[in-house]
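Fill-in record for Acyl carrier protein.
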Amino acid sequence: MNYKHWLIAQIASEASISEKEVDCDVSFEHFNLDSLAIVSISFEMESEFQLENVDPSLFSEYNTINKLCVWLESQQ
């Protein structure tokens, strides 16, 4: 599964920017995502990757796409 591509698409969609503007080493805060956007992406992650109880706080703990991808890979 290509977690990075999926996350880039989700972040770009929620932030209303192009996928080319999404830097995988920049903090999620940079994209000005509100809590509803983070919860929405968390819910979609559960469905897309067959995960249970993806806590939105993961976006603070693993605060970049690259860091979150490492976490996702560890869950499979």
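KEY FINDING: The helical segments are 3-15, 35-49, 58-61, 65-75.
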